[in-house]
Amino acid sequence: MMLVFADHDRGTIDPLTFQALTFARNLDPDVQAVLVGGGGAGLDVTAAAAELAQYGAQIVHVVEIAGYSDYAPLAAARALVELLVSTGAKALVAASSARGNEVLAHVAAITDRPFTADCYSISIGDPHQIVRARWAGNLHEEVDVTADVVIATVFPHSTEATPAPAAGTLKEFTATVSEHDLAVRVINRIGASTGGVTLPEAKVIVSGGRGMGGPEGFTILEEIAGALGGTVGCTRVVTSAGWRPHAEQVGQTGTKVAPDLYLACGISGATQHLAGCKNSKTLIAINTDADATIMNHADYIIVGDVNQILPLVLNEIQASKS
Ligand SMILES: Cc1cc2nc3c(=O)[nH]c(=O)nc-3n(C[C@H](O)[C@H](O)[C@H](O)COP(=O)(O)OP(=O)(O)OC[C@H]3O[C@@H](n4cnc5c(N)ncnc54)[C@H](O)[C@@H]3O)c2cc1C
Asked: Which superfamily, per CATH, for 199-321?
């Protein structure tokens, strides 16, 4: 049986979790999911379990931990360690998200087992043969892992989430968690989320780099994203300069995305940025430099100044809608 840690943010399940469920199901159809931090963490447990069931979770274990707030990695790991014992699962899988990697690293450390992050494929055996991403997916590493239980995260967008409705039977699980396990937990969030579509789920991402010239340059990107029902992304130069929040950063140290359309404006196409957007179905780049690296990776290129091109793009979108 495969156990999948369901990553959620205050009750909203990270869509990468559905990829992790699909990945686990491909190894063994007997898949169970774990939701840590029930109603207290803002979860509508029934609705969340129904979503997980859509992607093959036969059973959904709900672990309610007093004082968990909405995220406490070590406490979540303690619960998973106990569930591994009680269910006898042969693998623990999660999305390779910040939370997925953090929690599973704790599980591996507690149980003294190896942890394989960013996997593309796993062939269960003795040893387990695993292919995983290194250098943000620029290198594929083949590793042989010997462990009684596989602990692994799934490289974002390497597996397409495909529904396979299952029972999703709810089961409550009580874990022994100490105060020490709750020492690291979310107690406050600074900076409101926009409330709009998030980067991982966006079908359209309008992304800006240093070429946007400053924070004010992003106003038109917001307008275009709004007109297309998408969201804004950016490069690390932009977040480092404080023009946009880190939550919008795409790349190796940001979010890895796979939208239908990625519009890269004033972005050079550094390896670390491409690592986050190379799975986009269509990539359009606007850059004054025809030789910028991103131009070699884009499906369509526009050589020109964003200050001249983007107003025309916005006008065209608005005209086509009216
Ligand atoms: C360990 C590590 C991790 C990193 N992680 C990330 C990451 O997750 N994400 C990320 O993005 N970067 C990351 N970086 C940084 C990365 O190496 C690049 O520095 C960064 O992506 C460059 O950002 P940029 O394209 O905005 O800026 P630049 O490289 O400066 O490119 C700006 C581009 O804008 C064009 N331009 C300028 N003016 C205009 C105009 N008016 N109209 C049109 N085009 C114009 C220029 O021709 C140029 O191509 C990382 C680096 C390291 C070392």
From this structure: TPP-binding domain (3.40.50.1220)
110 lines ligand 1 (CB under 6 A): no
Candidates 3.30.1330.10, 3.90.420.10, 3.30.300.70, 3.40.50.620; CATH matching 2-182: 3.40.50.620
Nearest-angstrom CA–CA distance, 134 and 142: 10
CA–centroid distance for 24 within its chain: 16
Strand-pair category, 31-36 with 2-5: parallel
Whether pLDDT at 291 is above 70: yes
- pTM beyond 0.70: the answer is yes
DSSP-assigned letter for residue 165:
-
Facing residues of 122 across strands? Answer: 130
Ligand 1 centroid distance, CA of 301 (Å)? 17
Q: How far is the centre of ligand 1, averaged over its atoms, from the C-alpha of 253 (Å)?
A: 13
